[in-house]
Specification:
six-stranded mixed sheet, ATP hydrolysis activity, P-loop_NTPase, ATP binding, binds adenosine-5'-triphosphate, Monosaccharide ABC transporter ATP-binding protein (CUT2 family), alpha/beta, AAA+_ATPase, Rossmann fold
Length: 509
């Protein structure tokens, strides 16, 4: 039996032994060992900053370990580069989307191996037909001839999944793959993972969602502060045990106590008969001070369009967006100056300056103007923000690039905690944020509404909606389709309300 074989004699698809990695001032991984046999789905859990992405970078050849080694199907990952990893069949679906927006869906899917004619030329028709066939096999309902940049974030994520699976993979690494997916798309992804497992591909599945681990994984490994603290078969564990390993301290998920809701006053914002790209019918909507309004609906249902209209990030074609009864600013910077905060779903788009410090990023938020002259205040403010958002680092002079993905999201959120806006619009605010920090963020939002701020949350997470919302506006196929009370609604009710009606289906035909 070689090093990479298990008792059954199976050679591990991927085997990493004693891997350690440090960045300046931070030990990201200490002596981590992990092996996946062919056809195994292995979940990797850990709070923000635990070392998951660093391990992924090492397994995919992007970063070299300081100590330890990686073998793929019994062969050393040497030289330790992404090209070697790819050649050995290790593929990655990254946390951030990387579709080429100006290329077609087909070109994006087939990017790594465009089918050629006998003369060695690339045939557009062959590319389209091969891509469409692959998308259909995966169950991804997207037309291969569309421009990738015109797709929703969730569709782009599925196109990327199609790209990484277009060629046979020995090991597929999925880094928080459901962060921008909702109900049906999650099922598509699960189907793909199950099919790959059946054909012998090993899947390393990184997630903050325990139900996904129990739905999909055979084995689970928990990292904490860069060390492997727990490794077991999923059949032999339960959610409480896993959580106790993910978080060193007891997780405070106690009830979110809410101040009694203030009597309805005049709306602070309203949409009156608004039409815009992404909407199929005029939208009427009011946002009141002191309430959390949730916009619930699958990707493409119009929730992001409404959030962007409120935040000045999308222009109405007809109708009016009102702020305190007067026309609202029609640009993002104008809306920010008028006190409308916005946390978009794609944090890269929110202009995080990755090379600059956490302090600077907090105070360079679109509503901040005076940070340049007050570095100490910026520093103190950033520390307060980081503590409030339960970020694992208190050193606000660190560059944002050195933060884990989830902690970068907290900085985006923290920007708006440090300002005094009257409306805060958040699109999927806790995607990629660990469960502990999620609840800290929910508490912050509820405190802000108790002080009179209006909060609008676009979310595809039913638990999030029930924890936060006073009112839920449900959207399907580009129009508002229902409004329900946040306190009494259930995930089942929301799911049923979000399912397309007969009318939606007929209009789509
Ligand atoms: N390029 C870098 N330079 C300095 N420190 C880094 C760098 N990349 C990661 N780190 C640090 O290494 C540690 C592990 O980060 P990593 O991104 O692996 O966490 P993670 O478990 O993937 O978190 P998340 O759930 O937020 O994505 C963190 O303390 C992070 O700040």
């Amino acid at each position: 039996m070689t090093d990479s074989n298990d008792q059954s004699g199976k050679t591990a698809a991927i085997d990493c032994r004693g891997v350690s990695k440090a960045y300046p001032g931070v030990t990201a991984l200490t002596d981590v060992s992990l092996r996946l046999v062919p056809g195994e789905v292995h979940a990797l859990l850990g709070e923000n900053g635990a070392g998951k992405s660093t391990l992924v970078k090492i397994l995919t050849g992007v970063e070299r370990p300081d100590r330890g080694h990686v073998r793929v199907a019994g062969r050393d990952l040497h030289p330790h580069t992404p090209v070697t990893a790819r050649r050995l069949g290790v593929r990655l679906l990254p946390q951030e989307r990387h579709v080429a927006p100006d290329l077609s869906v087909a070109e994006n899917v087939m990017l790594g191996g465009l089918p050629r004619t006998g003369l060695g030329l690339v045939s557009g028709r062959a590319v389209r037909s091969a891509a469409q066939q692959h998308l259909d096999t995966l169950g991804v309902d997207v037309d291969a001839s569309y421009r990738a940049g015109d797709l929703t974030a969730a569709q782009q994520q599925l196109v990327e999944l199609a790209r990484v699976t277009a060629r046979p993979a020995r090991v597929l690494v999925l880094d928080e793959p459901t962060a921008s997916l909702a109900g049906d798309e999650v099922e598509v992804l699960f189907g793909v993972v199950r099919r790959l497992r059946a054909t012998g591909t090993s899947v390393l599945y990184i997630s903050h969602h325990l139900h996904e681990v129990f739905a999909l994984a055979d084995q689970v490994t928990v990292l904490r502060n860069g060390s492997l603290v727990h490794q077991t078969s999923v059949a032999d564990t339960d959610a409480e045990t896993l959580l106790s390993h993910v978080f060193a301290a007891d997780l405070d998920r106690g009830r979110l106590d809410r101040a009694p809701r203030a009597a309805r006053t005049e709306p602070v914002m309203a949409l009156r008969g608004v039409t815009a790209p992404g909407l199929s019918a005029p939208v009427n909507l009011e946002v009141h001070p002191g309430e959390v309004l949730a916009l619930s609906g699958p990707a493409g249902s119009g929730t992001t369009a409404v959030a962007e209209l409120l935040a000045g990030a999308r222009r109405p074609v007809t109708g009016q967006v009102l702020l305190r009864g007067a026309p609202a600013p029609r640009t993002r910077s104008g809306a920010a100056s008028a006190g409308i905060g916005f946390v978009p779903a794609d944090r890269k788009r929110d202009g995080l300056l990755l090379e600059r410090s956490i302090s600077e990023n907090v105070w360079l938020g679109p509503a901040a103007t005076s940070w340049l002259h007050r570095p100490r205040r910026a520093h103190e403010g950033a520390c307060r923000v980081l503590a409030a958002a339960r970020a694992s680092t208190t050193d606000s002079t660190r560059p944002v690039r050195s933060l884990s993905g989830g902690n970068q999201q907290r900085v985006v959120f923290g920007r708006w905690l440090a300002t005094s806006c009257s409306v805060l619009v958040l699109d999927q605010p806790t995607a990629g944020v660990d469960i502990g920090a999620k609840f800290a963020i929910y508490r912050q939002l509820l405190d802000l509404t108790a002080q009179g701020m209006a909060v609008v949350v676009v979310s595809s997470d039913y638990e999030e909606i029930s924890a936060l919302a006073d009112r839920v506006v449900v959207m399907t196929a580009g129009r508002t389709s229902a409004e329900v009370d946040g306190a009494s609604t259930t995930p089942e009710e929301l799911f049923a309300l979000e399912s397309p009606t007969e009318r939606d289906l007929q209009e789509a035909l």
